[in-house]
């Protein structure tokens, strides 16, 4: 009695598996696609050149671009517009130096060091990290003459080998970091 039940159950399971296998192979099955923007991306391929200006897609943002969070795109370019940005940027009225110190410690200190002397862990491995403040007994550093807006621009767009931190640090926090560098690190003597 036991064997007849097991044999019927085995045949039933085999029949179900065969039915699933046969229907799964049909080319007429419907594919359900969720989040179609992941399947059919509207973005241009960054490795291809556009048909109009013969430039790579990722090099320039289209005119009047609005960023994801709704604020206008940062209008100044990395090394080209440094002085223009320093003149034209409007400095906020208030700063949170404690928050600036915290963000500096996270994002800037690995290269520039805790005191801004370009003695961070990254600077020990890679040459070219520029000091933000003058170390005791050394000649004054160029960065000490930078305005608050210029420091903000460099933190936003980058300079030289340093990439900008606009994607990682919010706008007000970049101003806080710039104020911390100008009012705390560069004032210590």
Describe what this molecule looks like in 3D:
This is Quinol:cytochrome c oxidoreductase monoheme cytochrome subunit. Keywords: Heme, Iron, Metal-binding, Signal. Pfam families: Cytochrome_CBB3 (PF13442). This protein has 189 residues and is mainly α. The protein has a domain at 82-185: Cytochrome Bc1 Complex, Chain D, domain 2 (Orthogonal Bundle), CATH 1.10.760. It contains seven helices and two strands; from the N terminus they run ααααααββα. A hairpin with a 2-residue loop joins β1 (158-159) and β2 (162-163). It starts with a helix and ends with a helix.
Keyphrases for this structure?
189 residues; mainly alpha; Cytochrome Bc1 Complex, Chain D, domain 2; elongated
Radius of gyration using CA atoms only: 29 Å
Compute the average pLDDT: 79
Total count of helical runs of at least 4 residues: 7
What structural class results from the helix and strand content?
mainly alpha
Domain Cytochrome c: 95-185
Organism: Turneriella parva (strain ATCC BAA-1111 / DSM 21527 / NCTC 11395 / H) (Leptospira parva)
Signal peptide: 1-26
Keywords: Heme, Iron, Metal-binding, Signal
